[in-house]
C-alpha cells in the first residue's frame, strides 16, 4: 500500500503552528498570493486551504480559524501564499489526476474517512466529515467501477477499522444505487453521510462481533438494538441539525412491514430504506471470523430473491451486476481473472486475466471482454481459490 499523504487536517482553533514534518515542495510548483483568494476567506470560519510563508513553509493549516481582520491583514501584508492545487475541490482533483493515481487517492480518502468516524466527538467533526466525504464522492464519480472494487477487494482498505470499512462500503453502495434511481445531488450526498454515520455509536462493537465466533451476548444485543438512537445523539452533539439526516439514521433498521427496530414503525423513508438494503448487501460481501464472505453472484441473487419486486433491489442488481468489479472469476477457457469493469450487461464484465487456461501465472494481466462467448464467465471463485495478489496500482497501469 502507498503511504498516506502526510498533510493532515488540524482542528479549527489550534493555536500552535508547530506541526509534524511537511515536505517543502519544489519552488516550481504553482503558488499564488493569498491576496488573490481573499474572497474565499471569512474571519471566524475554518480556512479552506493551507496558508504558506514566502519560503513555502506552513503558516496555518487548512481547518484553522482566522480570528480577526487584523490577523488576516497581517498575513496578506507578509506576502503569504496558497498552493493553486489546494484551491481545487476534492471532486475537481479526482477528475484531473491520471487514472494510475486513483488507487493512491482511494487509499488516502478511505483512511481519512475512517479517521474521522472513529472520533465523532472531536473538534470540527462536521467540517472534517464534509471534507472527507467530498474526497471519496469525487472518486466514486470519477470511476464507479473502481469504487465498487473497494467494496469487493479486501486489501483495498485493510488498514481501516472494520466498523468504518462497513460504513464506507454501505455509503458507496447507497450512493451508486441512489444515482441509478435518479436521486438529486443533495439527496445522494445526504444518503452517503447517513450511511457513514448510522453506526457511529457501535463501531467498536462491530469489530468485536466480526472477530468473535459466539453469538452476541445480552449486553451486545442491547447495544445493537439501541444503536440507531445513540448514533443520533452523537450526531446532534456534533452539531448536525439536518432533520432528514437524523431521521434516516434513527430509522435505518426499520422496515416497511413494521418488523424492524428500534420502534417497529412502517414509515421508514427512502434514504433509510436504501441505506438498510445497501448495508445488508455489502455485509454479505464481508467476511467475519465465523463465516466467509458470500461470492458476489450469490450475494446479488440472494438480494433479488428476498425482495424481487422492489425498485431499490432492482437498481442495486443492475448497478453491481452479477460479477461486480473486484470479484475473482474463472472463464470458460479455464483462465482465472479479476473483474476490473462492468460490461454492457450484468453478466458480461471486463476481466483482467492473471493466469492462462492451464493455470500458469501471467507476468502482465491480459484484458478480456467476456461478451465474447469463448471468454464467457463460468463461475465466481473465492479469494483463496483465485490466488490473486497483484497491487491495484500495477493492475491499472498494465491495463491502461
Protein described:
With 400 residues, this protein is α+β, with helices and mostly antiparallel strands. It has three domains: 1-87, no CATH class; 91-320, Hypothetical protein af1432, CATH 1.10.3210.10; 328-399, no CATH class. Helix content is 44%, strand content 10%. It has helices at residues 69-77, 90-96, 102-117, 125-142, 144-152, 162-180, 185-197, 203-211, 218-237, 243-250, 270-284, 296-306, 311-320, 383-386, 392-399; strands spanning 31-33, 51-52, 58-60, 81-83, 328-331, 336-341, 350-355, 361-369, 377-381. It has a five-stranded antiparallel sheet. It has a two-stranded antiparallel ribbon with strand order 1-4. It has a two-stranded antiparallel ribbon with strand order 2-3. A hairpin with a 4-residue loop joins strand 5 and strand 6. Helix 6 (162-180) packs across helix 11 (270-284), helix 9 (218-237) packs antiparallel against helix 10 and helix 11 (270-284) runs antiparallel to helix 12. It is globular. The model is unreliable at 1-28 (pLDDT under 50).
Amino acid at each position: 500500500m502507498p503511504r498516506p499523504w502526510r498533510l493532515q487536517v488540524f482542528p479549527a482553533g489550534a493555536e500552535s503552528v508547530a506541526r509534524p514534518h511537511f515536505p517543502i515542495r519544489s519552488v516550481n510548483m504553482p503558488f499564488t498570493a493569498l491576496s488573490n483568494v481573499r474572497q474565499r476567506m471569512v474571519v471566524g470560519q475554518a480556512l479552506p486551504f493551507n496558508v504558506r510563508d514566502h519560503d513555502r513553509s506552513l503558516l496555518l493549516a487548512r481547518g484553522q480559524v482566522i480570528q480577526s481582520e487584523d490577523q488576516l491583514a497581517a498575513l496578506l501584508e507578509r506576502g503569504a501564499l496558497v498552493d493553486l492545487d489546494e484551491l481545487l475541490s476534492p471532486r475537481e482533483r479526482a477528475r484531473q489526476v491520471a487514472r494510475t493515481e486513483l488507487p493512491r487517492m482511494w487509499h488516502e480518502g478511505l483512511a481519512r474517512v475512517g479517521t474521522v468516524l472513529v472520533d465523532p466527538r472531536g473538534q470540527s467533526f462536521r467540517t472534517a466529515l464534509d471534507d472527507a466525504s467530498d474526497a471519496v464522492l469525487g472518486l466514486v464519480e470519477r470511476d464507479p467501477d473502481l469504487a465498487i472494487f473497494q467494496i469487493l477487494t479486501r486489501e483495498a482498505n485493510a488498514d481501516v477499522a472494520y466498523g468504518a470499512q462497513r460504513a464506507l462500503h454501505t455509503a458507496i453502495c447507497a450512493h451508486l444505487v441512489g444515482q441509478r434511481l435518479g436521486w438529486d445531488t443533495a439527496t445522494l450526498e445526504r444518503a452517503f453521510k447517513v450511511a457513514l454515520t448510522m453506526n457511529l455509536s457501535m463501531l467498536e462493537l462491530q469489530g468485536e462481533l466480526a472477530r468473535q465466533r459466539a453469538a452476541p451476548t445480552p449486553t451486545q444485543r442491547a447495544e445493537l438494538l439501541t444503536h440507531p438512537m445513540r448514533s443520533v445523539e452523537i450526531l446532534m452533539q456534533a452539531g448536525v441539525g439536518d432533520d432528514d439526516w437524523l431521521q434516516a439514521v434513527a430509522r435505518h433498521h426499520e422496515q416497511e412491514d413494521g418488523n424492524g427496530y428500534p420502534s417497529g414503525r412502517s414509515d421508514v423513508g427512502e434514504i433509510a430504506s436504501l441505506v438498510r438494503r445497501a448495508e445488508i448487501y455489502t455485509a454479505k460481501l464481508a467476511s467475519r471470523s465465523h463465516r466467509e464472505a458470500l461470492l458476489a453472484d450469490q450475494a446479488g441473487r440472494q438480494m433479488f430473491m428476498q425482495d424481487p419486486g422492489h425498485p431499490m433491489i432492482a437498481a442495486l442488481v443492475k448497478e453491481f451486476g452479477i460479477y461486480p468489479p473486484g470479484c475473482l472469476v474463472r472463464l470458460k477457457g479455464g483462465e482465472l481473472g479479476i473483474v476490473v469493469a462492468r460490461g454492457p450487461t450484468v453478466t458480461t464484465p471486463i476481466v483482467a486475466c492473471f493466469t492462462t487456461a492451464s493455470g500458469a501465472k501471467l507476468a502482465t494481466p491480459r484484458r478480456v471482454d467476456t461478451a465474447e462467448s469463448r471468454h464467457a464467465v463460468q463461475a465466481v471463485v473465492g479469494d483463496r481459490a483465485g490466488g490473486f495478489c497483484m497491487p491495484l496500482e500495477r493492475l491499472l497501469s498494465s491495463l491502461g
